[in-house]
Amino acid sequence: MRPASPRWRLILDSPQDGFENMARDEALLESCRHAQAPAPLFPALRIYGWSIPTLSLGRFQDALRSVDQGFCRERGIPVVRRPTGGSAVLHDREVTYCLVGGTGEEPFQGSILESYRRIAAGIAGGLTLFGLACDPGAPVGRREARGAPAQCFARACSYETTFAGRKVIGSAQVRRKGASLQHGSILLDANPKLFDEATGGQHEERRGWTTLRELMGRRPDFEEVALGLARGMGTEFGAQWRIGELTPLEERLAQKLRARKYLNAHWTARGSSTLSRI
């Protein structure tokens, strides 16, 4: 007999603000980290949107150099810092995913790069439902702190999905004492000028990315991309989805993280010259 397919939790969340989204992602990571027996709660895939255009910074990114604070205040664009590394992302017209599981178990077996490769294959498999085929082979490399771009979508590396050499998905991963989280943005559409201005007018970085609207000739619905993402991941890892939501404990933890961390100006303003990847 074939072993039963693993059952993973699928959380289809309503759009939230950036502070709530980051708090809910980290609450899942901490819940997995402290779980005595992760099944049946993990692995978990959370798919969500953003209630307002929001600029997110990587965990180690310099907020003063990477954000036009005056422009963001004037346009009402909140700035939030992610628990993962990398460069700035303007979250707006996109599908965002957060995949959480135990380190050393699917989908986080092996090295970080190996898990990137498998997860990227799952995402690419989902996009084939729309007639899209990603570039053969995958860019692999490490980003050095010196010369790293301010915008996440300025450069592709480490098995990130590209189409005709242009990046449409940006992802980042963190591993924390037995649990791992990878989240990322799938661009449905974009406002390049708004992204440029929010990050200080760095227009030259826009040439390296594209959107599903440009690739497909139409802007796909959030729901169809979310479904394609879940199907691609399920096929890649042989998983069956169990529709779920955050547990009451995870909800309470998310509210604590939102209030004490993500709404804390000291967390958002912190910075370092050491940049990670996205």
Descriptive report:
This protein has 278 residues and is an alpha/beta fold. It has one domain (7-269): Bira Bifunctional Protein, Domain 2 (BirA Bifunctional Protein, domain 2). It is 33% helix and 20% strand. It has nine helices and eleven strands. It has helices at 18-34, 63-66, 69-75, 112-127, 192-198, 212-216, 222-237, 248-262, 265-269, and strands at residues 7-12, 44-48, 54-57, 79-81, 89-91, 94-102, 162-163, 166-167, 169-176, 179-187, 240-244. The strands form three sheets. A six-stranded mixed beta sheet has the order 9-10-6-2-1-11, with helices on both faces. A hairpin with a 2-residue loop joins strand 9 and strand 10 (179-187). Helix 1 (18-34) crosses helix 8 (248-262). It is globular.
How are the SSEs ordered, and which strands pair?
Blueprint: E1 7-12, H1 18-34, E2 44-48, E3 54-57, H2 63-66, H3 69-75, E4 79-81, E5 89-91, E6 94-102, H4 112-127, E7 162-163, E8 166-167, E9 169-176, E10 179-187, H5 192-198, H6 212-216, H7 222-237, E11 240-244, H8 248-262, H9 265-269
Parallel strand pairs: 1-2, 1-11, 3-4
Antiparallel strand pairs: 2-6, 3-5, 6-10, 7-8, 9-10
